[in-house]
Design a protein that fits this description.
The protein is an alpha+beta fold. 53% of the residues lie in helices and 12% in strands. The longest helix has 50 residues.
Length: 503
């Protein structure tokens, strides 16, 4: 859609319908001159004037009407062939014909102007809507700066320059860039018709948001005679304001995201410090008490008491280490853009490593595994998966009761491998079955049961599963107990990569 008018085509190609209308009207009048009186013939002339005004400009239409009235007088008004007019008989008719023809011509011209203006407004509204859709469909409005430049250039049919906070687009001289910078910082339009620097030969339009301008555009004036079109400038300003508002919204969204991330990091730090200050104190106090007893009362302690105190120190130090590992791992996995150290790993070796560590910590507890032969290799971070299963097994051993062994199972499904840790403990209350996966949430302990840890083990496990593209869920078992199930997607192998593991 352009504002400047295209060169007028030759009259024969533009006004020929009007000529055809007049020709048909004169042919009809000559054919019906013997059948109709002057008043009825005059109606044909008025009709022709109204129809011809659809294609002729106002002055040309009025001139054609005047010539038609004179010709009508010569051809049809007695005495025929002369311009003499009988004032009593025909003057009123001819003057009425001329007046009505001119009025119709002017009304048709006005209607055409209104139609063109309506068409222009509709076209500009569509342009605004289309550009708004472009901005709405992008997360970074700066990528649509070239579209704005092209749209503005189509309005004035001349090159347009843009000044944005992060760069320039288009070409202009030093004075042009200086004007753009001034319009940007003042957040006001400059140029003819704006009341600011009207002597300029271009419009300088800011990309205005609600708070400030976020750029500026330089539009050379259209190469058309007459005063600059205020409506055109206002339409261009509306396009610029659309871009300014989009840039402001994007900047606000980035600031909101940054503030949210900062608040999240601050909350995580505060929670970690609270967990450390609260949950680290118990094992530290136990270690300090046992070590003090060994140091101060060594001579009075029996060998059994010494072994018991030493075992307490080892157990509490291990508990403290697991809390620290989980806390640090949760903080690391919560970092945006984290890249895992992926490699092809054997599920059997991962489970075996978990079993060895669990039996060292709980030598008297029964553990069982059910792994089908021929499991495929996993594309994963082995250290993280070992920590995931180790946390689940440690929880099952603590809270799953001593009646039946804790089981580790693997099941191959069409698109994933399911690793499960099962126990026969008292289970988890319905209101806690989803909350236990949130950081620093600990379900209510069974009567007389332990309540240890910072409540981050399961949060770390779910985070590790999701970091691998999988999921960790809880399923209650028939007959009592829990089944924590981790599903991991099976990555497709390509040439040069590891094949499936052998049994």
């Amino acid at each position: 859609m352009t504002h400047t008018q295209t060169p007028a085509p030759p009259p024969a190609s533009r006004h020929w319908p009007a000529a055809v209308v007049w020709a048909l009207a004169w042919a009809a009048m000559f054919a019906l001159r013997d059948l109709l009186d002057l008043a009825n013939l005059a109606l044909l002339l008025v009709l022709a004037a109204a129809l011809a005004a659809l294609w002729l400009p106002p002055l040309a239409s009025m001139a054609a009407c005047a010539l038609a009235v004179l010709a009508f007088n010569v051809a049809f008004v007695p005495p025929l062939g002369l311009l003499n007019v009988d004032l009593r008989q025909h003057a009123l008719l001819l003057l009425t014909m001329l007046a009505v023809s001119w009025i119709v011509a002017l009304l048709m011209a006005r209607q055409r102007r209104l139609t063109e203006a309506e068409r222009l407004l509709a076209s500009r509204a569509r342009q605004l809507r289309a550009f708004g859709d472009l901005l709405r469909d992008t997360d970074d409005p700066r990528s649509r700066a070239a579209d704005l430049q092209t749209t503005l250039a189509s309005l004035v049919e001349r090159p347009v320059a843009l000044l944005l906070p992060d760069g320039r687009l288009g070409e202009t001289d030093a004075d042009g860039w200086s004007g753009l910078s001034h319009a940007l910082h003042a957040a006001q339009a400059m140029g003819p018709g704006t009341g600011r620097h009207d002597e300029q030969t271009a419009w300088y339009l800011p990309l205005r948001g609600r708070q400030a301008a976020h750029g500026a555009a330089r539009l050379p004036l259209p190469e058309t005679p007459g005063e600059p079109d205020t409506a055109l400038r206002e339409h261009a300003q509306a396009l610029c304001d659309q871009m300014g508002l989009a840039l402001e919204r994007a900047e606000a969204a980035r600031a909101t995201t940054a503030a949210r991330e900062e608040a999240r990091a601050h909350a995580l730090r505060s929670t970690l410090l609270a967990a450390i200050s609260h949950d680290f104190r118990t094992p530290l106090a136990t270690i300090l008490g046992a070590a003090s007893s060994l140091h101060d009362q060594d001579a009075r302690l029996s060998d059994g008491q010494r072994r018991q105190l030493a075992a307490t120190i080892v157990d509490e130090a291990g508990q403290l280490g697991r809390i620290a590992d989980n806390t640090l791992q949760l903080a690391r996995l919560d970092t945006p853009g984290l890249a895992l150290h992926l490699d092809w790993e054997s599920a059997e070796e991962i489970v075996g490593s978990v079993l060895r560590r669990a039996r060292q910590r709980h030598p008297g507890r029964a553990l069982q595994t059910r792994l089908p032969p021929g499991l495929p290799l996993l594309r994963c971070d082995a250290v993280l998966l070992v920590q995931l299963l180790d946390n689940l097994v440690d929880n099952a051993l603590k809270y799953g009761g001593d009646a039946e062994p804790v089981e580790i199972r693997a099941a191959l499904e069409p698109s994933c491998l399911r690793l499960s840790v099962l126990d026969r403990g008292p289970g988890i209350a319905p209101e806690w079955r989803e909350r236990i996966f949130d950081a620093f949430q600990r379900g209510a302990p069974a009567p007389g049961g332990p309540r240890r840890g910072a409540g981050i083990g399961l949060a770390v496990c779910r985070t590790i599963a999701r970091a691998h593209g999988g999921e960790l869920t809880l399923r209650m078992r028939h007959g009592g107990g829990c089944s924590f199930e981790c599903t991991l997607p099976l990555a497709s192998t390509t040439a040069g990569e590891a094949p499936e593991a052998t049994a």
